[in-house]
Amino acid sequence: MRHILDPLDLSVAETDEIIALGESVMSDGGKYSRALSGKILATLFYEPSTRTRLSFESAMLSMGGGVIGFSSEESSSVVKGENIADTIRTVSHYADICAIRHPKEGSALVAAQNASIPIINAGDGGHQHPTQTLTDFLAIHSIKGRFDNLTIGLCGDLTFGRTVHSLVRSIARYPNNRFIFVAPNELRIPGYIRQILIKNGVPFSETSTLEAVIGEMDILYMTRVQKERFFNEEEYLRLKDIYILDKRKLSGANSDLVIMHPLPRVNEIAREVDDDPRARYFYQAQCGKFMRMALMMKLLEVM
Ligand code: NCD
After folding, report:
1. Which residues are CB-neighbours of 142 under 8 A, at least 6 positions away?
2. Which domains does the chain have, with CATH numbers?
């Protein structure tokens, strides 16, 4: 039995294999319509979600399985004082696989330590979000055809954005990639990630001005300022609209730039950008279902 708590729980070879399966699901989903027949997915979401939870559920239903779960802690026994360990011991008897999202870093690990079914981390606080990374990977691979030789810009809340932490660490394992981190000083990429890049000889630069570097990028990964992780409302209000990608800023970008965003978007990408052929964030969200189908098939060992 395996858990996926961190994107690096999958080796590069395993990641490539899951992407290949995700591409097969994308081209012929009907082939897998009974792949998980009789299996039950539990989605335990202690934090808001639209895409992650619904794509997990849609993925399981599209493979012939069933779904149970809750979408907020108010509707679970947490409000009575139950801890994750007890919840997961119980859910292990009701489901075959579990996706969990929780505001506290490390909560998916606690769940895994107490589970007798595979646990998938669907986001733990500002820490990691491995299935978003698989989603991002499928989008990148299907558009660019590769995970190497890319200049990847990440812009916005790089301190609290768990999707950023997972994507950077995972794609840094492929050769000749370079990162450009665009953030104000308050929202810089964490020191531990910078250390990983330095140790592995992966080039990166940091700036606070998007316009100055947008022309160098193959991929621009925009992110939302993570309101729920701020201790101070004033600080959030000061930083929330610091980057707004619009047509004017895009005028200096490559014609084959891929604009990504894990979504939800607030103001950081102007609506006028949605019609630009380089805007791929809704396509990216679509990839989430295919990848979650692929991942659950792998973890339940039917593929
Ligand atoms: C992201 C998350 O929850 O970390 N959303 C998602 O899963 N697609 C990004 C965000 O909330 O900003």
Report:
1. 23, 26, 287
2. 7-128+288-299 (3.40.50.1370), 131-285 (3.40.50.1370)
What span, in angstroms and rounded, lies between the C-alpha atoms of 33 and 146?
A: 28
**Element (DSSP H or E) covering residue 101:** strand 97-102
Q: Output the pTM of the full model.
A: 0.97
Classify 17 as helix, strand or coil: helix
Distance CA 268, CA 240 (A): 8
Find how far residue 168's CA is from the centre of its chain: 11
14-64 pLDDT tens trace: 999 999 999 999 999 899 999 999 999 999 999 999 999 999 999 999 999
80 in catalytic set: yes
- Which residue's alpha carbon is nearest to atom 12 within ligand 1? 224
178 is catalytic: no
